[in-house]
Amino acid sequence: MEAYDAQSSAWRDLDRAMGQLFMMGWDGTEVTPAIRTLIEDHHLGSILLTAHNLRSAAETNRLIYELQSIAYNAGHPVPLTIALDQENGGVNSLSDEAHIRQFPSAMAVAATGSLEVASDVARATALEITSVGVNMILGPVLDVLTNARSQPLGARTTGDDPQEVSRYGTAYISGYKSTGIATCGKHFPSYGNLQFLGGGQDVPVITDTLEQLSSKALLPFRNAIANGVDAMMVGGCALVSSGAYMMHACLSREVVTALLRDDLDFNGVVLSACLEMDSLIRQIGVGGGTVMAVDAGCDIIVLCRSFSVQRDAIAGLKLGVENGMLSRDRIYESLRRVLKMKSRCTSWEKALKPVGLDILSDLQLSHSALSKMAYRRSITLLRDKSHFIPLTDLSLESNEVLLLSPLLKPLPASAAKAEGQAGPDGVCSSDVFHSSPAIMQGEELFTDFGRMLGHRLKCRVLHTSYTAHGLCSVHENLISRAGAVIVLTADAHRNHYQSGFTKHVAMICNSQFCASHERREKPLIVVSVSSPYDFAVERSIGTHLCTYDFTRTALDSLVDVLTGDYTPEGTLPGTGRRKKHHSKAAHYWLVEDWSRERDENALNNLIKAVVEAMPPHRRSALVGSMADSFLVCRTGIEEAHFVVRNSSTRALYGFCSTYFFSDSGRGVVGALFVDPTRRNQSIGNSLHERAKRALLGRGDVKYIQLGSGFPTTFPGLPADDQGERQRLRTWFGKRGYDTSASHLVCRMILRNLSSWTPKVEVIEALRDSTIGYDTIPDIGDTNDILDFVRKLSGRGEAELYKIATADRKAYPIIRARDLNNGSILGCAILCDGRSLLAQLLPILRDSSEISGGLLSPIVSPAATKVDTVLQGLVLCGIQRIKAQGLTACILDMVSGESSVEAVSTIGFSVMQSFEGGVRLKL
């Protein structure tokens, strides 16, 4: 580690030390003579890679290895810092469909409402780019949008609430740092209220005073520093309200040293904005600008791509030291900080033996799932006054849907790309703001989106673009013939033609006449595919969705929402989220303890009302239930049930059951349902809050989950209907439950047993002489079964097996054994609709067939063929049920997609499905 000590002999050469104070880039996907010269002759310490350099993960890996090898062979004491912008959303320097996953933008992630998602996305992003050799990420973005509706940052930052930006910034830092990569917060002291004044002012301007910035915008930077951010990028924008005019913040001692170093106590590395700015070059010169930046307190000077400008910067720094404007101590002060950061994020062993692409292949499935989940959860429905979402619920007059998308233009801050200039981000603006090549890509994506939407809706989607020329006769004709209209907008608050066009379309749709000349509103859905603020407060737009970016994955998720496969659950971050929550005046109902004597009949009536309100295709898990279905009356299980009731009529409006398993510390919300005629009145919320307080009030509760294997009425969240499933996920998610780790639990049935025979291929698969199936014969085997169940399942299932082992005549237990060593591989309980256990599985006594039950099959994961053992247990149970003359077999608590598929092979079909394993985050 001597090389990372600025006082070691390796750094006596001042030129070598000064080289560590620069971060430079170039144009091209190959190492050029210029960048080689900078590394070999000028000891360049850091490389900035942009989209100009990167074509694929494999080529990036090769390119970085070549750069590090050049540095190593040139005698660099420490590896190069390789920095990259990978903010996600529309701002990714490295893209590769085969290896690099697309994740949502920062604001989209915040719209999920989950700090865990933010941390997971950050970690996944960092794992992908570190695998190709990158060791520093220029992120997270910590700007607070104090003037959200006019800023070029848009969805690149979390939003307009300093506290929320802080929390998500910290989550990103945590996720990044878990991979060992160096982090760099930006854009100090905040780009959240930039103004483009025009005229002679050719750089964006921060109009807030330093005092105003301290009160709001600096909070995320303070918290990032407290949570160990490695570096901070200081912006290149002017400050005009801070006492003295500062053309570029990164050149100001007041900003870098007084504010960032002294007031915020930041001791990490400070990066300047890219100094290849026309205004700086014209008015100061890059040599003088470099000296000013280092004198202000910057440790690394960023210069994006011009070799001549880069040499001027190096010469300027040397001249500044020779002339005494900068001392040697000042150079070594920055060197110490840079080396300290490098010691944490890189070494020659890492640099010359990169992980490579194998890890990307291993991560592909999990990262793809994370991407899809994050995008889905981010889609935000701000308004839907006429309930146009999903389109599949509408009876459209025409089988045609019109899609109108804008021809996008570069944002004002990104126009510099074409000239290779630096933008206000601090790295060349081409890589961080939407630029002209993205226009055609966007058009192609919108076209593909239209095709996919038409395929899923089974209708014709007419797609055309609109421009600043506004609405023309072609648009009017298409609107007239379409059954519904979808308008996409991208930053309409800056591209005002989009706002005017959309309002014009809304006016036409609101005044359409149907064939019978009856005035009727034509369905209009407006989707903001970038900033969510386009129509956030525009009430003339009745249905407004936000995707936060228009990447392919975002538009795929939008299709899922429009076709009803997914219910949008995102919320507008920051003050938008708070307003939404505050607008719902909470109404709390009086919740009382359940009394069997007082409430049994009323509960039976409530159950009946809930079941009858369910459509046939969504058969309720309450079918066959009665009040006693929720009573366990077992030692070691403490139960407490709650009701909302009308004390005058004694009618129940809602019911919630809870259980606490004392030996495991597990709390369970076993059931929660409300009178269908009284939904959306906060009855369910009041019951849930009371149940949660009761369980959390226990000092020994370790976790709380939804649903239980004992009693088995609801083993989890009902999942038969996709729309209802998403509604429930959203409802419980907002109350602190984590649905990301849930698993499938099914209740299945095999009918017509008298004529059923197993398939030949199933019998062939079960012909294994090493596994035997029987029922337990004596007390010793009973204890073995109970030990087996306790190790592999929850307390609920263990209670079921206790009941069964206490009366093996009424409840035979089938087991699977390894004949070589006698170990138990699996077990299941047999019963029928006349048994006591049927009250805990109400579907048995309600089934129209004369059914037998096979309850809680459990298979050891150590079994060589888990699904085969499960099939064997089920077949053995079917034989016994069939021998009793019963006509159907109901199989309860089949857990996991693989197990469901294995049982389906035998001939079972799913009766009811649930999401099990949903737990409250404590």
Automatic annotation (TrEMBL):
Q: Does the keyword Hydrolase apply?
A: yes
* Top-rank taxon, per record: Eukaryota
Write down the Gene3D superfamilies for this protein, in alphabetical order.
Answer: Glycoside hydrolase family 3 C-terminal domain, Glycoside hydrolase, family 3, N-terminal domain
What is the designated name of this protein?
A: Glycoside hydrolase family 3 N-terminal domain-containing protein
Sorted alphabetically, which keywords does the UniProt record give?
A: Glycoprotein, Glycosidase, Hydrolase
Name the source organism: Exophiala sideris
What InterPro entries is this protein classified in?
Answer: Acyl_CoA_acyltransferase, GH, Glyco_hydro_3_C_sf, Glyco_hydro_3_N, Glyco_hydro_3_N_sf, NagZ_Beta-hexosaminidase
Instruction: Describe the family membership recorded for this protein in Swiss-Prot or TrEMBL.
Output: Belongs to the glycosyl hydrolase 3 family.
Which residue numbers delimit the Glycoside hydrolase family 3 N-terminal domain? 14-340
